[in-house]
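User: Design a sequence. Structure:
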C-alpha cells in the first residue's frame, strides 16, 4: 500500500466490532476472451462482517491478476460512505503475498490475519452462482472429504492420469460389469464398469451389487428412493469440471494425463445429493484406477485376474472377475436386464433357411411357405433346423451368437470367427463397433469390406445389383461398407465416404440401411446440388428429413423465392418440431425410435441435416424467419376465429 492510501484510511473512524474478509477470487464460471479461448476471470472482492456488505473491483483476466487490485478495492470500499465509511479492526486474507502488501495497515490499527480459507467469501460466491444456476450449488471441494489432504489428492491424481493414459475403454464397455472379489470394497464399490467406449463419458462407475447396476441400466434409479446412490470417477475438460477441483489441481500442480482429463471422484444420491470420498474411500478408488491401468487385454479375456498395486496406505492385492464372461447370459437374460435385441441376430433364421432350402429345394412357392410354417415359425433364434458346415457358415454362426450377446463377449466371439474363417466380414464389423479409437475402427471396417468382397466373389455384384440387400449373404459386406463410409466421414475424408454411399445405393436402391439420409447433406455440403436434386427425385417420400432437404436445396438453388417458401411451408406441415429444436442450444439425445411428425423424428432430422443447413449462408436465418412468420399468421387466424365465435354467441343470445 502507498502512503496516500494509508493516510486516507487513517482519517476514517474505526469500528472495533467489524472485520473484512477478501482477496483475489477466481469465479466458478467460464467466459470467452477476445481470442475465443475460454478463461475463468478473477475478481477483487471484500466482504464486511457482521453487516455482510460487499465491494468488488473489475474482473481480471488470469494473465492480468495482481494483488494490487485487491488493495485498491479495499481502499475504495472503506472510502464509500454508502457501503464502508470506516476502517475495520482487522482483515482476513488467504494469500501470503497479499498479506505482505497489506502489512502497512498496522500503522492505522488494522490487524492483517492470514487464514487457510475465506469461508465467508466462498459462501457468498456459492450463493451468487447457485441463484444464477437455478439453485444448483457448486460441488463440494475434494478436500471436504474426511481426512483428505492435498498430498493424498496428489496420489489419486497420479493413479487417475495412469488410468486415462492406459485407456482401458479400448477393451471394456459399460456393459462389462467387473466384480471386485478381493479386497473387501467400501460400501457401494464392489462392482465397477469402465466408461469411455462410447467416446462421450470417460471414467468409472461403481455399484453396490449387480442388481443395482441392472436397475440403473433399466432406468429405474430415477424413480426409486431405495437406490443407494452411485460412486463415479469422471474425466472432463477444465471448462466442464467442478471449479474447485480445477483450482486444487492448479494450486498444487497435480498431474493430469490431458487438459481434457480432469478427474472428479463423487457420490451421487437418488435425490441428487452429492458427497466427496473420505480418505479411505479415495485410497480404494486410487487402487482401482492403478489396477485397471496395469491390466492387459489377455487378462480381461480370462474372465478373472489378480493385480497387486501400491496405494497411498499399503500394498493391495486385487482379484477381479467379469461374471458375464465366466457364465455368459442367455438372450432372454439380456432382455430382462433392459438390453434391446440386436436385429442382426434374427438373420440367423435366414441363414438357417438358406441352408435348408439348398439341401431341399422346394417344388414351388406354396411348398416353400408350407415348409417355413412347419419348420421355422415360432422357433427361438438359437433353435436351428440345420447346422453350419463350412468354415464360412461356422464363422457367421459365431457372429450371430455375438449379436445375441453384449460387451466383451462379442469381441471374443468375433475373434473366434476369424480363426475359423478369415473372410468373415461381420466379425470385423463387431471388432470395429467395439474398438476404442477411430483409427482402429477404420482398420477393422476396411478389412471387413475386403473380407466381404473375397467371400462373395464377383458374381453376386453382377447378378444381384439392384436388390443386393435382399440376398442375406450380402448383408455383412454392406454393414462393413456403411461403417467404413461413416468412419471416413468422421476422419474428414468426406469425398471417399460419398463414393461409398453412392455405390451402396447403386447396389441396393431400396436403401434398407438409410444411406440416402447420410448422403443428402454430404452432397449439399460439398456443393454437389445437382446430384442432391437427383437423389431427392429418386426417393419420393414424406419424411421430415426429405421435406426439409427439399426446402434447403430449393433455397440453395433459388434463394428466397415463392417456390422455396412453399417447400418450406410443406416441411413445417410434415414436422413442425424441427424449427423449435433449431432454436435450442443443444439437441436432445438421439432417440432409439420415432414416428412420422414426432419430436423424435425432428431430432433425427436436425442431426442429419444440421451441418448442411449451418453451412448454407443465410439458410438458418431464412428458415427461422419463415417459422416465426408462420406462427404470427397462425395466431392471427386463431384470434380471428375467437372473434367470430364470440360474435356468433352474441347473435344467439339476442335471439
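Assistant: Done.
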Amino acid at each position: 500500500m502507498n502512503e496516500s492510501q494509508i493516510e486516507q484510511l487513517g482519517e476514517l473512524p474505526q469500528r472495533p466490532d467489524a472485520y473484512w474478509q477478501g482477496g483475489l477470487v477466481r469465479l466458478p464460471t467460464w467466459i470467452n476472451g477476445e481470442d475465443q479461448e475460454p478463461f475463468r476471470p478473477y475478481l477483487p472482492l471484500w466482504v464486511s462482517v457482521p453487516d455482510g456488505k460487499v465491494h468488488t473491483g473489475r474482473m481480471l483476466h488470469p494473465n492480468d491478476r495482481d494483488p494490487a487490485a485487491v488493495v485498491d478495492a479495499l481502499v475504495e470500499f472503506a472510502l464509500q460512505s454508502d457501503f464502508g465509511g470506516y476502517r475495520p479492526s482487522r482483515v482476513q486474507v488467504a494469500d501470503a503475498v497479499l498479506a505482505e502488501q497489506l502489512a502497512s495497515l498496522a500503522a492505522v490499527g488494522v490487524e492483517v490475519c492470514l487464514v487457510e480459507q475465506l469461508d465467508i467469501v466462498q459462501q457468498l460466491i456459492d450463493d451468487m452462482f447457485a441463484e444464477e444456476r437455478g439453485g444448483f450449488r457448486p460441488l463440494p471441494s475434494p478436500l471436504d472429504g474426511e481426512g483428505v489432504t492435498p498430498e493424498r489428492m496428489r496420489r489419486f491424481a497420479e493413479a487417475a492420469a495412469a488410468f486415462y493414459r492406459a485407456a482401458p475403454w479400448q477393451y471394456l464397455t459399460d456393459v462389462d460389469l467387473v466384480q471386485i472379489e478381493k479386497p473387501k470394497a467400501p460400501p457401494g464399490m464392489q462392482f465397477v464398469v469402465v466408461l469411455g467406449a462410447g467416446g462421450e463419458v470417460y471414467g468409472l462407475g461403481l455399484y453396490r451389487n449387480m442388481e443395482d447396476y441392472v436397475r440403473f441400466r433399466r432406468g429405474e434409479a430415477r424413480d426409486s428412493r431405495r437406490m443407494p446412490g452411485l460412486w463415479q470417477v469422471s474425466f472432463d475438460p477444465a471448462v466442464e469440471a467442478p471449479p474447485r477441483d480445477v483450482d486444487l489441481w492448479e494450486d498444487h500442480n497435480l498431474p493430469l494425463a490431458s487438459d481434457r482429463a480432469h478427474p472428479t471422484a463423487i457420490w451421487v444420491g437418488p435425490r441428487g445429493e452429492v458427497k466427496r470420498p473420505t480418505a479411505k474411500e479415495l485410497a480404494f478408488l486410487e487402487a482401482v484406477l492403478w489396477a485397471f491401468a496395469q491390466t492387459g487385454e489377455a487378462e480381461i479375456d480370462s474372465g478373472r485376474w489378480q493385480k497387486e498395486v501400491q496405494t497411498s496406505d499399503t500394498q493391495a492385492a486385487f482379484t477381479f472377475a467379469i461374471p458375464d464372461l465366466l457364465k455368459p447370459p442367455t438372450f432372454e437374460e439380456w432382455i430382462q436386464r433392459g438390453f434391446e435385441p440386436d436385429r442382426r441376430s434374427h438373420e440367423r433364421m435366414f441363414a438357417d433357411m438358406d441352408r435348408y432350402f439348398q439341401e431341399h429345394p422346394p417344388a414351388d412357392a406354396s411348398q416353400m411357405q408350407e415348409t417355413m410354417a412347419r419348420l421355422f415359425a415360432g422357433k427361438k433364434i438359437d433353435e436351428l433346423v440345420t447346422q453350419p458346415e463350412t468354415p464360412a457358415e461356422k464363422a457367421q454362426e459365431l457372429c450371430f451368437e455375438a449379436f445375441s450377446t453384449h460387451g466383451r463377449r462379442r469381441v471374443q466371439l468375433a475373434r473366434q470367427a476369424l480363426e475359423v474363417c478369415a473372410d468373415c466380414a461381420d466379425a470385423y464389423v463387431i471388432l470395429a463397433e467395439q474398438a476404442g479409437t477411430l483409427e482402429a475402427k477404420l482398420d477393422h471396417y476396411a478389412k471387413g469390406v475386403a473380407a466381404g468382397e473375397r467371400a462373395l466373389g464377383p458374381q453376386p455384384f453382377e447378378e444381384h445389383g439392384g436388390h443386393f440387400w435382399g440376398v442375406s449373404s450380402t448383408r455383412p459386406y454392406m454393414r462393413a461398407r456403411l461403417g467404413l463410409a461413416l468412419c471416413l466421414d468422421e476422419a474428414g475424408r468426406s469425398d471417399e465416404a460419398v463414393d461409398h454411399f453412392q455405390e451402396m445405393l447403386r447396389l441396393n436402391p431400396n436403401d434398407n440401411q438409410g444411406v440416402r439420409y447420410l448422403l443428402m447433406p454430404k452432397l449439399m455440403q460439398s456443393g454437389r446440388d445437382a446430384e442432391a436434386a437427383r437423389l431427392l427425385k429418386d426417393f419420393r417420400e414424406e419424411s421430415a428429413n426429405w421435406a426439409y432437404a427439399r426446402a434447403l436445396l430449393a433455397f440453395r438453388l433459388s434463394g428466397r423465392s415463392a417456390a422455396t417458401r412453399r417447400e418450406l411451408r410443406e416441411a413445417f406441415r410434415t414436422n413442425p418440431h424441427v424449427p423449435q429444436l433449431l432454436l435450442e442450444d443443444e439437441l436432445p439425445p438421439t432417440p432409439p425410435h420415432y414416428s412420422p411428425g414426432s419430436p423424435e423424428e425432428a431430432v433425427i432430422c436436425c442431426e442429419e441435416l444440421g451441418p448442411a443447413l449451418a453451412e448454407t449462408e443465410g439458410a438458418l436465418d431464412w428458415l427461422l424467419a419463415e417459422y416465426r412468420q408462420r406462427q404470427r399468421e397462425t395466431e392471427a387466424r386463431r384470434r380471428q376465429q375467437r372473434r367470430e365465435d364470440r360474435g356468433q354467441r352474441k347473435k344467439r343470445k339476442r335471439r
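The two ends are 89 Å apart (CA to CA). The longest strand covers residues 14-26.
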